[in-house]
Amino acid sequence: MIVKESFNVRRTVPYVRFDLLLAAISATAAYLLVDIGEISWLALPSLVATVLGTALAILLAFRANTAYQRWREASTI
Question: Domain segments of the chain: what residues?
Answer without folding.
Answer: 1-42, 44-77
